[in-house]
Amino acid sequence: MSYVPPEGPGSHKTISGLEPETEIDLGLGSTVSGTSEIASAVGAAGMWSPDALLIEHRSLWGEIWRRFRRDKFAMVGVVAIIILVLVAILAPWIAPHDPTKQYDSGLTMQGMPVGPSHEFWLGTDTLGRDLLSRLMYGARVSLVVGVLANGFALVLGVIFGLTAGYFRGWAETLLMRMTDVMMAFPIILLAVALVSVLKPSIWILILVIGIVYWTPMTRVIHGEVLSIREKEFVDAARLTGCSSARILWRHILPHLVAVILVYTSLGLATTILFEATLSYIGLGVQPPTPSWGQMIAEGQNYYLSAPHLVLYPGLAIMITVLAFNLVGDGLRDAFDPQQRRR
Amino acid sequence: MSTAAATDGDTLVRVEDLRVHFPITSGVIFQRKVGAVYAVDGLTFDVMRGETLGLVGESGCGKSTTGRAILQLIRPTTGRVLYEGGDLANLKGRKLRDQRKRMQMIFQDPYASLNSRMTIGDIIGEPLLVHKMGSTAERKAKVRELLETVGINPNTLNRYPHEFSGGQRQRIGIARALAVEPNFIVCDEPISALDVSIRAQIINLLRQLQREFGLTYLFIAHDLSVVRHISDRVAVMYLGRVVELAENAVLYGEPMHPYTQALLSAVPIPDPEAEERRRPVVLTGDVPSPVEPPSGCHFHTRCPAAREGLCDVEDPELNEVRPGHWAACHLITGSAYPHIRAGEDDLAVVAGASEGGETP
User: Do A254 and A125 have their domain in common?
Assistant: First the structure.
């Protein structure tokens, strides 16, 4: 582990060995050298002296953020996501054209889409609509569906995982076998079946993706809870008289934050991709609302004459998914410095 | 079964025929019970008010399970745990939580026993909060007072556990246990995970707190010399049962049960001449699996004095062999005990000889 000097006034060289991190992980070496200061301040008699106040306090989250910030790939991902979110929010103001308007100047005399030009920066689609504007509006659909569907899956996964892992018994058997069955099911087929029974709309899409994707989160949370509930601090909490609800909320859930953050960012990549897939096969957002998957589907017949119709939406999907994956990996490394590969 | 009560003093905690069996199951959806681990298999003893009862035994003999079962962290399979006469094993929910104000635990691993996502102020203040003791300001004052009591700078209450050393964390764990002002504390190997240099400090702190607050301890350890140092009475466990229970000096001076004798004879003496004369009783074989404990006396498979047809058939009861001295062995009748007292003058164990820590 490399050491980042403490920042700001009032920082002291005395703690240079102290790497505040999940205690045991880093081995005792650094902890001991850091805490020996406290030990000497406390003194042999077990009494404390004001010298102990000199030790700088550092929060766990601060340290995680410090590590995350040093990860260049993750920061690229963060910047990409910020740009994406800004574009999606500001689309009505920054889009050069109306995404659904069919421009006469957007088609050639033969009725073919035009390539990139001064008027249409990325060219137009088969109906003469501005591709750039459609991409910008498509970002809205991707992000809204991705975030909400993932949030839905997250809530289900955390509730099911906590219940199964903490209370065990028949609830665990029921929930985890249900998860196994769901995972064994071909999810595209399930989603297609669900969407075709219900009327396709953005809300149905969110619901369906959420239902399809709660299983991985449930499994991960379940496994984590199984190990955390056996820790002595949970026994200690029960002994002090905490109710189950309080133990789950105050003692177990805070230890799941790392896992939840990592799997949410990785899950966002998956759900955004899944939304594109469903839109591509025509079960997603319905025209004329633009979405990236649907844009690829519409443009694929023209890939020889107008490759930009497939290229740009494809790039948009790729960059978005990659960005979320990079952030997810970066978060995982930041939370668990022992497992980092670099 | 008779109870191993001391002749004087009053009983704070009485354990009656306590059994904890962990089922071994197989099957994916429909779990069948295919066996059980007999972790604690018929324990009976009393803990007197104000005393320290040491509980020693090898790893895996059920010491920690006993401590946890007494506090109802693990529900006993059968048997009763009476706290001031009231049975804890039947209590649930609110009533159990109210009883928990009276008894606490100090854990073995100071790294695992503190929630790393809470400040130590929150950790120590939580028992006060859940039992609705005092206002926010009063609780904060109490937390500072507790920290000072255990020798931690009260100004550090906004720090997280990772900012403290093992010994300091154990002090914080002790402060948490003291927060609800309990009478009875189970110390589950509180020093075995600590550096040797820190152990004495924690032991002395525990003794000081006992004097100050009139605490009663059940002190679980595998380190004979530490138990001798801190205990008033000592119970020796073997494979889920108490084999001998006596006052400290009596148990270490005149052990009756063959297992206790073997255990004590294995402790080295830090005196070259005495050590030269020490004749350890070497037990053969391993501790049998608690999944299939031996029939009759659990110790008969390794006992150098075991008698066929008696020890492997009949369960020995824990009898009061002499006033205050309880032992579970068929071969002890009246004063005519002892069978294997090899090198008996050397059995005196010198405090300070340590076995070395068991890693958590």
Answer: yes
Query: In angstroms, what CA-CA distances link B186 with B70, B217, B309?
Result: 9, 6, 39
A35-82 pLDDT per residue, tens: 444 444 444 444 554 444 444 555 667 778 888 888 888 899 999 999
* ipTM > 0.90 for the complex: no
Residues in contact with B270: Cβ distance below 8 Å, sequence separation at least 6, in sequence order: B350, B352, B353
Under the banding of pLDDT at 50, 70 and 90, the label for residue B29 is low
Residues of B in contact with A36 (CB under 8 A): 165
Residues of the domain holding A46: 1-58
| DSSP codes joined into one string, B8-26 | SS-EEEEEEEEEEEEEEEE
Other CB atoms within 10 A of residue A107 CB: 18
Identify which of B98, B159, B180 has the shortest CB distance to residue A240.
B180
Q: Which domain does B314 fall in, by range?
A: 11-102+182-347
Contacting residues of B for A250, CB less than 8 Å apart: 115, 118, 126
Tokens, residue A282: 């025509």
Cα–Cα distance measured from residue A112 to residue A127, given in angstroms and rounded to the nearest whole number: 8
Whether the CB of A32 is below 8 Å from some CB of chain B: the reply is yes
User: Where do we find the tokens 């150098």?
Assistant: B304
The answer to whether position B107 is within a domain reads no
B201 chain-A contacts, CB cut-off 8 A: 46
Question: Are the Cβ atoms of B100 and A173 closer than 8 angstroms?
Answer: no
Tokens describing residue A203: 């809300």
Number of domains in chain B: 1
**Is B22 part of a structural domain of the chain?**
yes
Mean pLDDT on B213-237:
90
pLDDT at residue B217 tops 80 = yes
| Positive or negative torsion for Cα A158, A159, A162, A164 | negative
- pLDDT tens profile B274-333: 888 777 777 777 778 888 888 888 888 888 777 777 888 888 888 888 888 888 888 876
Contact yes or no for A236 and B105 at CB 8 A: yes
In this model, does residue A12 exceed pLDDT 60?
no
pLDDT, tens digit (0-9, with 9 covering 90-100), for A115-124: 777 777 777 7
A57 reaches B (C-beta below 8 A): yes
Q: Alpha-carbon distance B245 to B54, whole Å?
A: 9
Helix, strand or coil, per DSSP, at residue B242 = strand
Token duo for residue A323: 């960005």
- Nearest beta carbon to residue A254 from set B114, B117, B153: B117
Asked if residue A64 is part of any domain, the answer here is no
Same domain, A112 and A86: yes
Indicate whether this model's pTM tops 0.80. no
Q: Nearest-CA residue of chain B relative to A253?
A: B117
CATH number at residue A243: 1.10.3720.10
Total residue count of chain B as it appears in this document: 360
Higher pLDDT, A302 or B179: B179
A25 and A91 part of one domain: no
pLDDT level of residue B175 (50, 70, 90 thresholds): very high
Instruction: Determine contact: A338 vs chain B, CB below 8 A.
Output: no
Nearest alpha carbon to residue A233 among B62, B126, B63: B126
Supply the CATH number for residue B337's domain: 3.40.50.300
Question: Structurally, how many domains does chain A consist of?
Answer: 2
Q: Which long-range contacts (CB under 8 A, 24 or more apart) does A44-53 make?
A: A45/B151, A46/B150, A46/B151, A46/B201, A46/B205, A47/B151, A48/B148, A48/B151, A48/B152, A48/B153, A48/B154, A49/B153, A52/B153, A52/B155, A52/B156, A53/B153, A53/B155
Query: Quick one: DSSP state of residue B355?
Result: -
Average model confidence (pLDDT) for chain A? Answer: 77
